[in-house]
Design a protein that fits this description.
By secondary structure, the chain is of the alpha+beta class. It starts with 10 loop residues before the first helix and ends with a helix. Bound molecules: guanosine-5'-triphosphate, sulfopyruvate and manganese (II) ion. Guanosine-5'-triphosphate is lined by residues 258, 260-266, 286-287, 310-311, 313-314, 319, 438, 486-487, 495, 499-500, 503.
């Protein structure tokens, strides 16, 4: 029997399973209206204009920031809430000591109580979305149900939403991740982000902010996807993806995992320093990377996202001209300050001054920063001057090097290379970083954040490290593994390394290491460049500073590995013995 082409069907008819689930959620949440998002331009404009009319979005200066809007979230709802985020597997040991856990039945009962009737008087939006290019075998789909029009607008920028995503869901046999979201009453005591990786579902209540509410991002593309990736033999990581073309015209792609607000967006769109003519940079992704072993023995990466939800503070034409230009039009700003002429403003934007702070008060330095430290911009990836069509390639891009890194004022050198894949997994597992404003809690405290996935690994870290080891062992041409730290500070609290565009000097050393064209010194923690191995042309770096950046303090590293062993021991018998063996080798080399 012939089946009707999907294009003739209305949205709720395209996927039976999605339709049935929406009916179920409607009965529970009792909205006044149900609206299926088709992903059209007109729909986006209509929703945006509705929010403007309701006073929830503020148009910014139409001459200097055309198509830009300010959204102010609830002042108690400005960052991810890790203490309220749970991975609900049947067995607690599968979530691991790295996750908060509640038994699935208990979590579902609690959430059912919260969602019961919560959309009365509101509209229920159905957002079918695809993470990754619509035609990539590596992409995965979901349906987010939300009562927030801001979430719809953000998802429309950050992912591929609407009709085509729903068509893909139907083609994939009606398989999709179910994400249910309501802003509720924004009471922090009634706020939970629950993940059920065993039945591919997410329930988020009580927050309208970023990673808590845009369920395609951290909830699906990292927590649920990392769980799936383990059983299916791939990796879902908190990594940027960037292509680097050297003056000889060769392009290599690298992926880099840094914790939240530690430099991924900036590295992904860096501008080569003047002293490095002929280099070109192509951004594939700035936050999330899905990598699959290819038939050629390499890892192939796609960016599951279509936009950037980037940190505003610190962005200026000097640190990141690409970002600064990218967000001058058609950008949604969240929790930034305003200038007197209604432009968005944040700390580090030096070419203007704040007049109104993020809480809508006249700016007064006594009240703290004008923009919230976790204020962000939401913008389509295609607006990035260094955007590349490779981001749309269904096969992804081949990865030559994987970089781990953290924000550490002390200890970690500018860069070092792991001795092998197995040692590199230990290097990734050893990442520690100062906490930032991206999550609620104290800022500036060093904490362990293996592979920058502490808030995002959807299962036990012991199993996660084992998965990394097993996957790497199967790769004929594994990427080389490195660790970087752009954030070493001097006695006065100043950064020792210029960072931003100059980070390309470190990337150049890595690519040369991959090609066997750069030297290094062997140290107990791995291979470090000697000062002469780095391209420092045009950089007036004090030789003493350079020595500090490219050497290690053995006594301090002995303390560090002792602490690391204590941390890894928390994972008990889930911890792969090979990795503890690697740690023993480091300890022996440190003497
Ligand atoms: P998430 O979106 O939270 O995952 O963060 P991210 O890793 O993409 O961080 P992002 O690139 O947005 O950088 C966060 C902050 O660090 C911004 O204020 C940047 O200006 C600053 N930053 C980025 N790269 C560097 C660097 O190389 N050196 C220094 N000193 N600061 C940097
Ligand atoms: C992060 O915190 O790592 C982010 C921002 O990228 S959020 O989407 O809020 O998680
Ligand atoms: Mn992130």
């Amino acid at each position: 029997m012939a089946t009707a082409p999907h294009t003739l069907l209305s949205l709720p008819e395209i996927s039976k399973k999605a339709g049935a689930w929406v009916d179920e959620v409607r009965a529970l949440t009792r909205p006044d209206r149900v609206y299926w998002c088709d992903g059209s331009r007109g729909e986006f404009q209509h929703l945006r204009d509705t929010l403007v009319a309701r006073g929830e979005l503020k148009p910014l200066n139409t001459d200097t920031f055309p198509g830009c809007y300010l959204y102010r979230s609830d002042p108690t709802d400005v960052a991810r809430v890790e203490h309220l985020t749970f991975v609900c597997t049947t067995h607690q040991a599968d979530a691991g000591p790295n996750n908060n856990w509640i038994a699935p039945a208990e979590a579902k009962a609690r959430m059912r109580g919260l969602f019961d009737g919560c959309m009365k008087g509101r509209t229920l939006y159905v957002i079918p979305y695809c993470m990754g290019p619509l035609d990539s075998p590596y992409s995965r789909c979901g349906v987010e149900i939300t009562d927030s029009a801001y979430v719809v607008l953000s998802m429309a920028i950050m992912t591929r939403i609407g009709h085509e995503a729903l068509e893909r869901i139907a083609r994939d046999g009606d398989s999709f991740v179910k994400g249910l979201h309501s802003t509720g009453d924004l009471n922090p005591a009634r706020r939970f982000i629950m993940h059920f990786p065993e039945d591919l579902s997410i329930e988020s209540f009580g927050s309208g902010y970023g990673g808590n509410a845009l369920l395609g991002k951290k909830c699906h593309a990292l927590r649920i996807a990392s769980y799936q990736a383990r059983t299916e033999g791939w990796l879902a990581e908190h990594m940027l993806i960037v292509g680097l073309q050297n003056p000889q015209g060769e392009t290599h792609y690298v992926a880099a995992a840094f914790p939240s607000a530690c430099g991924k967006t900036n590295l992904a769109m860096l501008i080569p320093p003047e002293a490095m003519p002929g280099w070109k940079v192509f951004t594939v992704g700035d936050d999330i990377c899905w990598m699959h072993p290819g038939p050629d023995g390499r890892l192939w990466a796609i960016n599951p996202e279509a936009g950037y939800f980037g940190v505003a503070p610190g962005t200026n034409p000097k640190t990141n001209r690409n970002a600064y230009e990218m967000i001058r039009r058609d950008t949604l700003f969240t929790n930034v300050a305003l200038t007197a002429n209604n432009e968005p403003w944040w700390e580090g934007r030096k070419d203007a001054a704040p007049a109104i702070d993020w809480l809508d008060r006249p700016y007064d330095p006594k009240n703290g920063p004008a923009a919230h430290p976790n204020s962000r911009f939401t913008v389509a990836a295609t607006q990035n001057p260094s955007y590349t069509k490779a981001a749309e390639d269904p096969r992804g891009v081949p990865i030559s090097a994987i970089i781990f890194g953290g924000r550490r004022r002390e200890l970690a050198p500018l860069v070092y290379e792991a001795r092998s894949w197995q040692h590199g997994v230990l290097v990734g597992a050893s990442v520690a970083s100062e906490t930032t404003a991206a999550a609620v809690g104290e800022v500036g405290v060093v904490r362990r954040d293996p592979m920058a996935m502490k808030p995002f690994a959807g299962y036990n870290y012991g199993d996660y490290f084992r998965h990394w080891l097993q996957l790497g062992a199967k790769l004929g041409r594994p990427p080389r593994l490195f660790h970087v730290n752009w954030f070493r500070q001097g006695a006065k609290g100043d950064f020792l390394w210029p960072g931003f565009g100059d980070n390309l000097r470190v990337l150049e050393w890595m690519l040369k290491r991959c090609a066997g064209q750069a030297g290094a010194a062997e140290t107990p923690i791995g291979y470090l460049p000697r000062p002469e191995d780095l391209n420092l042309a045009g950089l007036a770096l004090d030789p003493a500073v350079l020595r500090e950046l490219t050497s290690i303090d053995v006594a301090a590293w002995r303390r560090e590995v002792r602490d690391l062993r204590g941390y890894l021991d928390e994972f008990g018998n889930r911890m792969p013995p090979e990795l503890l063996g690697e740690l023993t080798s480091v300890e022996q080399r440190l003497g």
